[in-house]
Amino acid sequence: MSRIFEAPLYPYRRSKDQDTVRAVRHPVVVVGAGPVGLALAIDLTSQGVPVVVLDDNDKVSFGSRAICFAKRTLEIMDRLGCADPMVERGVQWSLGKVYFDERQVFEFNLLPESGHKRPAFINLQQYYLEHELVARLRALEEEGNAIDLRGNNKVTAVRRTVDGVQLTVDTPEGPYEIEADWLVACDGANSPVRRALGLDFVGRVFEDNFLIADIVMEGGVEFPVERRFWFDPPFNRGQSALLHKQPDNVWRVDLQLGWNIDKSEESKPERVISRLKAFLGEDARFELEWVSIYTFQCRRMENFRHDRVIFAGDSAHQVSPFGARGANSGIQDADNLAWKLALVLQRKAPESLLDSYDLERRQAADENILHSSRSTDFITPKSETSRLFRDAVLNLSEHFPATRPMVNSGRLSLPSVHDGSPLNGPDCEDMPSRTRPGAPASDAPVSGGWLLDRLGGGFQLLTIDCDVPEHLEIEGIGIERVALTATGLEELRTRWLGSADSAVYLLRPDQHVVGRWRSFDREAVRSAVLRAVGR
């Protein structure tokens, strides 16, 4: 891994801001060049918003960290122009298997239906994702877009003002000051921005420890490309284990260790190797690439927006890694925020629109925390009664499919549906639930390709067997028409029409549904557009 990316990818370069007497003001400053900060910067820049990204490092992250990227994340990356190289390099999978002791008790398919461009999941080391995002950012920069990624620029002080934010930034050549209309903190679970403002998380810290190891296998080991989870395996009695394949013959191993352990002792290479050989066999040949011991936390900030400072990703919320909810939900934060912040800066929407980011993404965080907490409680029962119940469910699941939904080895990431959002418009009950207001667009094959490839980053009217003007503009908000017919396209009909003969959908720039009708009504669409931009 770092064998490939040891060199600085965005090395320190002196900026013009360091040579001014007065602090230079920028529309948006993003702190943190991880997946969330980079995705947000690319999205904003693509919508014409100048962005400065500050990062205290100058290269991609060490260790694979996040590895499981869900279908919705890949769809967002498609829109940002990064998905193809991710999917080409990544390990695609949809099958998961659950074991109890040495027995496989059942398996599940995360995408059992056909007709989607992207797979249920890919496994890809986080450093590869960051590399692709930086490459995309550089391409936008070369095209003349105002996007500035500054490595070795560490934020050391944050001060909120009436109409913006002031920052002190330390560099190898000394500190300087800048200002921002809006500051977005994407600086991780230990967010310096959050600490500088005296803010904290609320939630649970779980009393358990897990060893996470990325290992490079030798000798052409052939494990299946699937997610495999063990409860109480013979090589880790009383605990659990997880195995995933990544590119470059790298494998991710998670081993539950228990609460009362000596972390420094368990982190020693000889101890880690001993545990891994018990799992993989004494003859297994592998090289340790990255090792960490972590404790589960399921927590979030009470609010993600604090005046002109907004939090996204791990700086705003934390969940356990089982379920692949961290990076995926963080990228969806960026997807939700970018278009709203762009409209506010373009004076097409009031600042209050950003309150919907806070509401919708806190709703998503609560959903992720709920699933993550339930997973952790099932994986690590806190009483003998809980353990007996869990083991009974696992035994029954081998023979009785009805009990399998009760098995929770980490409910895997799904995009949040923003039910009840103040941005949602009218609904039609005879249309499918999966494309109701608040839901992300569901992909389907269409003439010449895929539905989601036809959807861009603005407001759109998706019409199916219905006449609608080709282009609308409602009080400065342009709306593009995407006209389709369902004739001969069963997936499109099933996912978007249901029992209706025709449909008109209003979609937000993040491809979530605003409202839907059986036929076009200009005044109804106008009302829904204004509602969706907070006017």
UniProtKB/TrEMBL annotation:
UniProt superkingdom: Bacteria
Assigned keywords, A-Z: FAD, Flavoprotein, Monooxygenase, Oxidoreductase, Plasmid
Gene Ontology MF terms: FAD binding; oxidoreductase activity, acting on paired donors, with incorporation or reduction of molecular oxygen, NAD(P)H as one donor, and incorporation of one atom of oxygen
UniProt keyword Oxidoreductase, yes or no: yes
Region (Disordered) residue spans: 405-444
InterPro entries hit by this protein: FAD-bd, FAD/NAD-bd_sf, RIFMO-like
Cofactor(s) this protein requires: FAD
Residues covered by the FAD-binding domain: 27-367
PANTHER family: BINDING MONOOXYGENASE, PUTATIVE (JCVI)-RELATED (PTHR43004:SF19), TRK SYSTEM POTASSIUM UPTAKE PROTEIN (PTHR43004)
The name this protein goes by in its record: FAD-binding monooxygenase protein
Species, as recorded: Rhizobium fredii (Sinorhizobium fredii)
